[in-house]
């Protein structure tokens, strides 16, 4: 058709037909594009980027990541060279015959670390001062709250337990150390019986409580907390060595505000050589978690470094704690609901108390000038009655149901089949949350852990398509 400036009537009808046809085609094309978009979107989300799909809850070894150094630097502190150490000790630290080799093997199997060597190292050995040099020039008030150190154990290696206790006695100012409360969660190792009783009798500050049946970490800690009479409760694992000046920086933060809950920085005692070491420089990590509800070490974000004024000696706000080592004002601990007594044995309780502290008005902090060495075991040496998975899932469901509001869906999305499982009665914990006027989980995510991405990979065909927010976000990402 030649353009003439005038559209004649006989031209108009085919034009209208053509227009109608193009609208139809355009419409079909649009539908095809949308369908393609959705397919791409879902197939992308269906693949879990790190192959994490269907990951089941496994007992996470506490804080293994801290061993790896983000800068790839070698540990700067080594205890002593093997030979020097042996000379000092007057005995060998490695097995020399079949009987000793068998003993070493047994020690590993029982503890997940080198008990053979632990038994031969001095209880009061020196450890390298791993603090930042700037920490040494800090001054702390001499009047600080008195402390009950609570150490719970179940079949711990006798020498590792005693080394923990000895380091606390040697490196805590006596006027600040009110007592050491040991809680034996029904151990059956013979040397943890009378032999331990005899040792504890030597030091009036040590008190020991024994369970007549295995209760697990959570209830054992409650036994310790109820028995303690210091102003601060300080929970320690039973295979630690506290470092120089470890206590004052923790207590100072609690003295400033009783709702500050504080954790020392964890140094590494190697499980084979039992060498005490740390990574160079200030701690670059703080506590986080993933949607499997596992604790994770995460890089401290820039906004938090800014809040600290880039001062390496200052406290780091931490969204979660690893769980083994922390200090809390005793009355505050009970005020905010201690532990969820409906949880079993171990697992999930560290995230539960972390969420609760932040959501109910407290703060959770890492204190760089306080250092405690910890043996990171090779494996969990003791059994979980009823199975690890069953207990962890039940504990995590209680955690999700009480504290995580709509965000609990991110946990369930990966394991839809557990929804129907029983997690017991949570009414008391919901009541507690109401009574304390705790904030929402959304508030926590937006204000405490804002760098945490929402899990797009949770969206699946069958599992979690009901989240329209997720769907819109998904399409938004693609466009
Ligand atoms: Mn431990």
TrEMBL record:
Alphabetic keyword roster: Disulfide bond, Glycoprotein, Manganese, Membrane, Signal-anchor, Transmembrane, Transmembrane helix
Cofactor: Mn(2+)
Localization per record: Endomembrane system
Membrane topology: Single-pass type II membrane protein
This protein's name: Glycosyltransferase 2-like domain-containing protein
Highest rank taxon of the organism: Eukaryota
Keyword flag Transmembrane helix: yes
An example Gene Ontology molecular-function term: polypeptide N-acetylgalactosaminyltransferase activity
Protein family membership: Belongs to the glycosyltransferase 2 family. GalNAc-T subfamily.
Matching Pfam families: Glycos_transf_2 (PF00535)
Transmembrane domains' residue ranges: 26-46
Predominant place of localization: membrane
GO cellular component, one term: Golgi apparatus
The keyword Cytoplasm is annotated on this UniProt entry: no
Residue ranges of every copy of the Glycosyltransferase 2-like domain listed in the record: 148-332
One example of a Gene Ontology biological process annotation: protein O-linked glycosylation
